[in-house]
Amino acid sequence: MSANHTSKLQHLQQLANSIKFPRNMVLGAATASYQIEGAVNEGGRSPSVWDHFTRIPGNIADGTNGDIACDHYHRLEEDVALMKELGLTAYRFSICWSRILPNGRGPINEEGVAFYERLTDLLFKAGITPYATLYHWDLPLTLQEEGNGWLRRGLVDDYINYVDITTQRLGSKIKHWTTFNELFTFTWWGYGLKEDAPGFGGGAKAALAASHHALLAHGRAVPIIRRNVPDAQIGIVLDLNPVTPASDTIADLEAARRFEGCQNRWYLDAIFNGQYPADMLETYKTVLPYIEETDLHEIAQPLDYLGINIYRRSIIKDGTEFAPVNFERHLPEGKYTQMGWEVHPECLYDILQYVNTNYAPKQLFITENGAAFSDTLETDGSIQDCDRSTYVLSHLKQAARAIEDGIPLKGYFCWTLMDNFEWAEGYLPRFGLIHVDFETQERTIKQSGRLYSMVADQLQSEMREASE
Ligand code: FCB
């Protein structure tokens, strides 16, 4: 290791040591079924919208798909052992709907249920708490083909049926349930644009119809999960950004308000206040879906927690994206990740503060935060990923700051456990705490993973001392 690197590492170790969390802080890592499982034709699973979308030339930057991904389906033991080695106390993963119900509805696929039971049992043995997400974008293809998936209001009933079955079958083991991951992303990028599955490209009208139906599905799922799992902790995960206008011109101020309304308030106001924001109803007036009078009431179910996925801030000016939202991003000078996302650790604190002040959820979790940077394997086989290490530790520092300021942040999940299939970007961006060689499936814990486990170990040893 070079002298330069040794001093960088010392600095990072000091940073890791300086991060202090309350003893009950949950430190985990997150993944999603399609991004890691592979085995798409095994165990009775049927195709999802992502299997179909990845087959269409031009959709995925490197022409790849999730057919094998991290082959996690066949490597549960090894992967849970790695989580344990990292010192994680929790693991956030998603359940693939078409493994449980290959036809989207109808007969249950016992092999699918057994797979998630096996994962959960292994997690418990390793002292890791499972946090399950019921929907991380892999809609069964058969349901997409009926009325374009989330554009059909009736899909709400199919989702509820899937949630009912899944929580009945897995609820005795899994107590932390998330209804959806990132409504904004899959509805706007998948139904509004053609960037993500299903690649519908129907503009704001389609994005809002899909959003409304998914919000309703969320609201109707909550009481079903409560009935099936009386001691459950139930929440939803949203991707939120602190938004600032690029200038103080009226045009930029208004664009920032609309963007913030589109990405943040549309979902938060519906979920926490039972209403869509009045200014956005005005902006969207020509593209609104059919909304029944009781829908918003049903959407606004009391939740045990809100999960926030946060990667960056948004500096917004007037523009033409997502008409009629009409915004453009301003990208200031600074450091950027492989995704083209600006590194700005305060965004994590700012978004927690914003949500806590305006909506006061009972508990908050950072359910995703992390960074894609390219990695080089050193001659000794190690990966000295200083940029990712700095990113993760400096964001953790902001999480600790939020807790000190009284924000009810209960946990942090790093995105992601291991390098995986990054949707439309394929395997190019590497986000993992663990490096995956996709030729051999060999896993190597990166320096960022070692530093993250330093923080986790500190916490665990304090817990042990407290209980002695
Ligand atoms: C989030 C997704 C997650 C991952 C990260 C980088 O939007 O929830 O699956 O792709 O971005």
UniProtKB/TrEMBL annotation:
Record has Hydrolase as a keyword: yes
Catalytic site: E368
One Pfam family per UniProt: Glyco_hydro_1
Xref: SUPFAM superfamilies: (Trans)glycosidases
Coiled-coil residue windows: none
Organism whose genome encodes this protein: Pseudovibrio ascidiaceicola
Catalytic reaction list: Hydrolysis of terminal, non-reducing beta-D-glucosyl residues with release of beta-D-glucose
Name this protein carries in UniProt: Beta-glucosidase
Keyword terms of this UniProt record: Carbohydrate metabolism, Cellulose degradation, Glycosidase, Hydrolase, Polysaccharide degradation
EC number annotated for this UniProt entry: 3.2.1.21
Top-level taxonomic group: Bacteria
Similarity field: Belongs to the glycosyl hydrolase 1 family.
The UniProt record lists the keyword Hydrolase: yes
